[in-house]
Amino acid sequence: MDLELLVLGDKGWGDEMLRAALVTLMVSLAAMGIGLFISIFGTLSKLSNKIYVRILADVYTTIIRGIPELLVIYLLFFGGSNAIMSLAKLFGYYGYIELNAFVIGSVAVGAISGAYSTEVMRGAFLAIPRGQIDASKSVGMNKYLIFTRVLVPQVLRYALPGLGNVWQLTLKDTALIMVTGLVEIMRQAHVAAGSTYSPFTFYVTAALLYLILTTASNRVFNSAENWANKGVRRA
Length: 235
Description:
Elements: H1 14-46, H2 51-66, H3 69-90, H4 101-127, H5 130-138, H6 143-173, H7 185-196, H8 199-228
Helix pairs in contact: 1-2, 1-4, 1-6, 1-7, 1-8, 2-4, 3-4, 4-6, 5-6, 6-8, 7-8
């Protein structure tokens, strides 16, 4: 392993790898945010009394979780470009339109994250004892108070461990968006390895960067779980 290739500045690739790690983190945060936004509607749909709404939500989670993540990215990246170009032709524009790699990467990984987050949130909601909701109604709490003071805090507490796993999955799935041309950790490692003919050095560096990000993430989620479980009696 040639450490001289990893120095900062013009003589090494260290600063490029660090920038790529920052891009990976930014894409992961954007994708997780998109996934959580999707999961809110996905969870409500799965718990809906309307059967066609539940079917739509089931179709979404089944398809996304049932096909490879890389295929989801390909479908959204190339399918999204085709859809935009077809729409542009209606207005007389026949040129090639390429979607922004950061945006499409975040949306694609966010769609994957959303499917898993939906199941985590649904399970967390179902884990709340029904008696607590009935008790809240019996003391005169309206739907808003029940939602904000009973449901949300407990759903978050039950969901945090699962969401931590989804975050780790999201973080690692960003490696797949190198196919879009976005320069994240894996893309930068691939480019550097090809330029220097030292693949071992840069792929080990990529692995270490991912380990740093995932280890730091574990600490954050563990702290969040400890905070959420304050005052909860443990069996």
